[in-house]
From TrEMBL:
<dbReference type="Pfam" id="PF07883">
    <property type="entry name" value="Cupin_2"/>
</dbReference>
<dbReference type="InterPro" id="IPR047183">
    <property type="entry name" value="GDO-like"/>
</dbReference>
<dbReference type="InterPro" id="IPR014710">
    <property type="entry name" value="RmlC-like_jellyroll"/>
</dbReference>
<protein>
    <submittedName>
        <fullName>Cupin domain-containing protein</fullName>
    </submittedName>
</protein>
<dbReference type="GO" id="GO:0051213">
    <property type="term" value="F:dioxygenase activity"/>
</dbReference>
<dbReference type="InterPro" id="IPR011051">
    <property type="entry name" value="RmlC_Cupin_sf"/>
</dbReference>
<keyword id="KW-0223">Dioxygenase</keyword>
<keyword id="KW-0560">Oxidoreductase</keyword>
<feature type="domain" description="Cupin type-2">
    <location>
        <begin position="96"/>
        <end position="163"/>
    </location>
</feature>
<dbReference type="InterPro" id="IPR013096">
    <property type="entry name" value="Cupin_2"/>
</dbReference>
<feature type="domain" description="Cupin type-2">
    <location>
        <begin position="265"/>
        <end position="332"/>
    </location>
</feature>
Amino acid sequence: MALKEAATVDALQVFYTDLERKHLAPLWTATADLLPREPKTKVLPFLWRWSDLWSLAQRSGELIPIERGGERRVLALINPGLTGRYRTSHTLWAAVQYLQPGERAPAHRHTPAAIRWIIQGEGSYTAVDGEKCVMGRGDLVLTPAWSWHDHGNDTQEPMIWMDGLDLPLVNDLDGTFFEPYPDFSQPLTKPENDSERRYGLGQLKPTWEKQLGPASPLLNYKWNQTSEALGRLAGSGASPFDDVAMEFINPHTGGPVLPTMACWIQLIRPGIRTRAHRQTNSAVYQVFEGSGATIINGKRFDWKKGDMFVVPPWSWHEHANPTDAEAILFSIQDTPVMAALGLYREQAYEENGGHQEVVSTFQG
Ligand code: GTQ
Ligand code: FE2
């Protein structure tokens, strides 16, 4: 801003100092930072390789016991643009959790909500509000906000799963409460897999059940049904941007599984290269099957089974599967938050036939 005729540079300096001393700030020197023409994120696109995740998780198992206080054996994925802030994107916490045969993680509850996406192992469990949810590869298990949860592995094999939490968002909103359960484990007061018995077939629900909260009443989305749904849709249609993509739904509402997080499963068919687009939400992906690449803002991230990667908000991205085998991606997204606040936008990449030019490749 230009100075008014009467003002001197000295008078202006004194004025700014006085403002600061009185805890005031002028908008006119901050407009460009506060109101960028479009989102300017510090979140960087990044990829974590399965070979690292798996070997470091195993080392954590050799070194670190699971005790009350530490609560969980979890390795969080830290975005290199947000170092020191314990977050994978600005809103999402993604991690791997490792549980060895015979181990248990203590019961607790917190206002941040969580999902588990099972990567490896069959038959361990998460107990959620008195219900034992038995977990296997490809299952999606929810622990909605403020639900008691503890984990246990009574099998002969180590279990590893992806955790997804809205922890960074809830922390930024100063909405975090945490409470340890008075005992190490919670009592199982409901039949095993109770929510699956009531809601597991999706197209029908018990007539007497009322919707109690904003989270899905189905706590375990079993892989065999997810896989069947994907296969059926593949015979029908696909999105030009996401290929054969499906959202896990709350059977009461048809909406996202949690008020803060949506979960997707998508099949990128052999030979497919999707068109690029960008959205105001961020997403963290886990490569469940196959290999391929995602181009994010012109950088190619080659991925294979087990890798995890983050797509920052308002970043151009497209997926490619150049192999002759199916690729399956699971993801968590903060879309419900953006949608609820009227902040959700998406835009298709129009230039160059809808495909970005690849200017670099991720080495990591
Ligand atoms: O399993 O309860 O990755 O409370 C972070 C916080 C997992 C859990 C995480 C948690 C948990
Ligand atoms: Fe937890």
